[in-house]
Amino acid sequence: MRDGFVWGVSTASYQIEGAVDEDGRGRSIWDTFAHEPGRVVTGETGDVACDHYHRYAEDVDLIANLGVDAYRFSVAWPRVQPDGKGPANEAGLAFYDRLVDTLLAKGVDPVVTLFHWDLPQALQDDGGWFNRDTAYRFAEYADLVAARLGDRVGMWITLNEPFVHTVFGHAFGVHAPGQTLMFDALPTAHHQLLGHGLAVAALRGRTSAPVTLANNYSPVVVLGDTEADHRAGAAYDALHNRLFTDPLTGRGYPEGFDLPVRDGDLEIIAAPLDALGVNYYNPTGVRAPGDPDGGLPFDIVALEGYPVTDFDWPVVPEGLRQLLGRLHADYGLPMYVTESGCAYAESPNDQRRIDYLAGHIGAVSAARSQGVDVRGYFVWSILDNFEWAEGYSKRFGLVHVDFTTLVRTPKASYAWLREHIAAHR
Fold it and tell me: Where in the sequence is the signal peptide annotated (predicted)?
């Protein structure tokens, strides 16, 4: 990764690539999930998405013309290993070869995420992340990708948001693979983190580029003054924030979590990192559970008094400044904001997105002025895309995508960000 503050944009494979049945790609859990009736609120799938697989050169031009330093994208595991194991699919690796070379030719550093939730369905059929063996398969996959791309990638991100994949995918069932196991989902957290540690070792053997993991973080706002309210806030913070970061830095898991840890696992997970990847969207309001027998030790409560996005998420830039300060104090690692963005439907004059970006970039600047080591800011996302269980109904892009014609049209926020980067480089 280049020196100095890094400006970037981000995407994920299933959300933009399409071409799900081309060139030897295997099926992923999101292919399965999206085709099951009722799973995606709009009934849509990522079969075509933005057709980035065929239009990547056009998209790289949009990225380069924005003036960013780096582009964070994810590799589709089933495109590289159709069954999640065995030799690499040459056509899949060749696509990412072309993408990386095209980015570098335009002066943009590739930042590769190895897992952004599209687990090969064949591995899910064998137990998915409940199966400890999946962690070892992930390390083999990481080695295959790094062997091919490791000489040109600027930074590696092993996992994207293991909290979200665990809770939304395995506890609440609103994401693939659609399991509703509540706290019985926790083994998937441990096996993802074990896979991360094993993958770090594989990457270190292939490349000298920085390695990190991108967590979703949410500052906890305790709503209420009782001891029970504060216990609830601590419980939620341990689940959302600490469970997926403490073990990365050698602290082990927070108390109260029953995880299938074997001898040596925590040492593998604590493989030294070069930075923390920070995905931030909003704080979370928490209070004591209204029903102590309801299964959760907290209630999630809407935060009042803030503007909201089309997801009804509160817009709180100050939360990002506070979060970065807390992570700096707790863990002491350099940080990259690897995702920051908002869903708004309006286009091309998306003034609310401009306001959002200005506020959150300002929060990063304020944190840096206070001595917090933040080295980059990646906007989510360069393109409108398939927004998981919301289908194409939520638009995060700096660039509007017509999902009928696939025509790309930069929004006002794209022009604003280009001018901001140029003025502050």
Answer: none
